[in-house]
Design brief:
Blueprint (H helix, E strand, L loop, with lengths): L1 H20 L3 E6 L7 H16 L3 E6 L2 H10 L6 E2 L2 E2 L3 H25 L4 E5 L6 E5 L2 E3 L11 E3 L5 E6 L2 H8 L3 E5 L1 E3 L5 E3 L2 H12 L3 E6 L14 E2 L4 H6 L7 H13 L4 E6 L5 H7 L6 E3 L1
Parallel strand pairs: 1-2, 1-13, 2-10, 5-10, 13-15, 14-16
Antiparallel strand pairs: 3-4, 6-9, 7-8, 11-12, 15-16
Helix pairs in contact: 2-4, 3-4, 6-8
Length: 295
């Protein structure tokens, strides 16, 4: 009996948070181990259904880098990266779109629907949801050529978001569907662009003025030099921590994505360990929370 009472107390403790976020939008970047482990995939689907059931509006943006690499390997196409971004020629773009839109997206939608939810899969090309342009990347010339302009690097069809048209997302929300978005954008020429999923999630959160942007990763969150989790950061702290190399590597674009979202109308951002079951619920509905919040 005591175990049942404790469960009921847990629900009551969650009530203020459920009330706070009712009718609010939460954008979730879904990726990493949470997309691979079968148990975590099911728990994620159930978490999304629960959020929708209690009146919170989840919008999912997913990655799929490892799945893309698997197919490229089978096709004997060697991937190439510049500054952590995949060089995407026409052949690679076809594979990217095939995997993200045709496989990964449909699997996520299928998991949610199989567990009793109502999800709809989209790419950024559907209804011109995510408009994009070619991402311009440059690198500095060596010291002997200090007066020369930076060298431009051609990444192919790698894009940056220029606009998010939210009408289709609002229509789905009005009809109690959960949108699941593949990070493929559309250019003015109608062709597809490969876009970093964190950046798409941030842009979608900004366009929807989301209450939260949550990035699922394979680490506990932002950590200091001793490996201690930093539970809360101000956006004004981030560049200093990057300069000190406390924040480094793949965490840099994630925290900058959070800072941009906060500068453009998102209320709060989080970087969570997606390897933990129900990580999103633990963050949203408990006093302690998990991971790192950036405000």
């Amino acid at each position: 009996m005591q175990e049942s009472i404790d469960r009921a107390k847990g629900l009551i403790e969650s009530l203020p948070y459920m009330q706070q976020f009712r009718h609010k939008t939460v954008v979730i970047k879904y990726g990493g181990h949470a997309m691979v482990d079968e148990n975590l995939k099911k728990q994620f689907a159930l978490d999304m259904i629960l959020l929708k059931q209690i009146g919170i509006n989840p919008v999912i943006v997913h990655g799929g880098g490892p799945q893309i690499n698997q197919l490229l390997d089978r096709l004997q196409i060697k991937p190439s990266y510049v500054q952590g971004m995949r060089v995407t020629d026409g052949e690679t773009m076809s594979v990217v779109e095939m995997v993200l839109v045709g496989k990964v997206n449909k699997e996520i939608v299928g998991n949610i629907n199989h567990c009793g939810g109502r999800a709809v899969g989209l790419s950024g090309r559907d209804g011109d949801l995510v408009c994009a342009e070619k991402l311009q990347v440059s690198k500095k010339n060596d010291a002997a050529l200090q007066d020369a302009p930076p060298e431009l690097i051609d990444l192919g069809r790698v894009g940056r978001v220029t606009q998010v048209n939210v009408e289709i997302l609002q229509a789905l929300d009005d009809n109690d569907f959960i949108p699941v978005i593949a990070p493929v954008g559309v250019g003015e020429d109608g062709q597809a662009f490969n876009i970093n999923a964190d950046l798409v999630a941030g842009a979608v959160a900004e366009a929807l003025k989301a209450a939260k942007l949550i990035l699922l990763t394979d680490v506990a969150g932002v950590q200091d030099g001793e490996g201690t989790l930093l539970r809360s950061l101000q956006k004004t702290d981030l560049e200093g921590l990057i300069d000190k190399e406390t924040i480094a590597g793949g965490m840099i674009p994630k925290v900058r994505c959070c800072a941009d979202a906060l500068n453009n109308g998102v209320t709060k951002t989080h970087i969570l360990d997606g390897r933990i079951e129900h990580a999103i619920l633990l963050e949203m509905f408990t006093k302690e929370g998990i991971g790192t919040e950036i405000v």
